[in-house]
Amino acid sequence: MKPGADNSRFDTIVIGSGFGGAITACRLAQAGMSVCLLEKGRRWLRTDFPRSPGAVSRHTFTNAGDQPGRGFIEYLRFKTMDVIQGTGLGGGSLHYFNVHKPAPALIFDQPCWPRSTDARRMKPYYALAADMLGAKTLTAEAGHRVPPRTEAFNRAVASIGRQPEPVPICVELAPDSPTTCQHCGNCLLGCHVHAKNTLDLNYIPLAEAHGAQVLTGHKAVNITPEQDGYSVTAQYTTHPEQENAVDGIRHLFARKVILAAGTLGTNELLLRCKHKFGTLPRLSACLGHGYSGNGDFLFAGTRYRRQLVDPGSGPSITTGVGFEDKPGQYIYIEDLGYPDPFIWHFNALLPTSRRVPALARQIYRYFASPLGGRLQFELNDVMTDGYLTNFLPYLGMGTDAADGRLLLNRRGELELKWSIRRSLPMFRSMIRHMEDLSRRSGGRFVNSFLWQTPLLRLPLKKTLTAHPLGGCAMSDTPATGVTNDAGEVWGYPGLYVADGALMPMAIGVNPSATISAFAERVAFRIIHNRELTENDRARPANHRTETHEKSRQAEAETA
Predict the structure, then answer these.
(1) CA 88, chain centre distance (Å)
(2) pLDDT value, residue 504
(3) What is the pLDDT of residue 543?
(4) Which residues touch 84 (CB under 8 Å, ≥6 apart)?
(5) Does the reported pTM lie above 0.85?
(6) Pairing mode, if any, of strands 289-291 and 404-408?
(7) What DSSP line would sit under 330-341, residue for residue?
(8) In terms of Cα–Cα distance, which of 183, 173, 24, 196 is closest to 99?
(9) DSSP state, 192?
């Protein structure tokens, strides 16, 4: 089928434009297939990203039930774990912290993976995605200034006798590039200089250059098997008056369908197809099981009395250190930067013992100085009294028990059932390592306010994850998972999963590189029905630099 022959019939429909969706859409379009990429959010130009405190509060986060397009980060609340995920063309790449770190080899040694999946086989896929996304480390030797936060973290790691590890980040770092990183620290809020290699600058425009049709403002709500393929029912989320829409609904058809709507979105869609609409009744009983928050632990850190950290400066994550306390358990801790609007907000909000006396002292000096007083008013003394100025935030990740379950409640809404009980030993080990980093480096450990209350230290043991995984695990049989090792859903030929939902366990590090590698694998297996090898002649071309530059120019013309 040639691209453009029918605006409702395609070779492949890809649902979701994050790492899984953007990559599979790109590779299949490069292979000559007609591809339709559905995204429920909208396109975000670099000039659209919020920067002022007011814009950040109105146009960053969106909650369940909000109209897509209001923000590009969804915040979903569950009883024991909150989840943040991306919405908008480019998915989670719009707000993620740029880290592209492969899973440690020991992860693939665990028995939950299909027999054909190991670190050696995945290596070419990791390399392919890393090249496209421009992954590199931030080093002083390359002529880049090292943020104070990075130096503080490295000193903390050295204090426990370990060697800090620069992490690969998908950021333009060349000093002579017009899109080089400005060290503004606003990665979470979208990169307004295009230094971050988000998916709307590489994979997606390359897919469009090969004829892929991108439909933003379209949310897939049902998948129905048909003769020689599947029909996808999509609901308009922003423009119900568009052509071919009846009551805001559009029907599309494809020989193959790839689900990459994010871990929660993919699970929710399949659960609805199985239990609400009954269109995919043969889905494995494992659907929704094996959910993991990737052991994410946020908002903890080290408070120093006099050491400048300035957590808002530099790329949001730059360095890390790993721990293997026992076989099969892996913990990784990274430095973490907060965007400037968050820092200003929390500095004004958090009470400190110095703030009130310092403010009173400067008010007195302000009025005394013109009247001949000897005390000099100093504005900088008021401005620099910020709690987070000397705070080193951590992002912890680890191999939790991956024993959560996603399901639909009685109202038909997605629900997460997860208990921390089996993951508690891992979290306690992670906190001990953070405490050790703090104490040995001369600081005071501050625990996450989600884990325990700040003043009374009452245990809450709630977590927040930006890396939800699982629920549609790949496996060797339908009795142990939802898809085979190529991401094809058991019992439904031509239906695939290609995002974090595929993971049968926690990755223990930032999972975007692993999700990207598996998406590359899903696409390559569809096209060639075999594995990619190193120096493979069939390795798809990336054209990363050219595609990135064309995307920047096109956006500048649009703006």
Answers:
(1) 13
(2) 98
(3) 80
(4) 73, 74, 75, 76, 95, 464, 465, 466
(5) yes
(6) antiparallel
(7) EEEEEE-PPPHH
(8) 196
(9) T
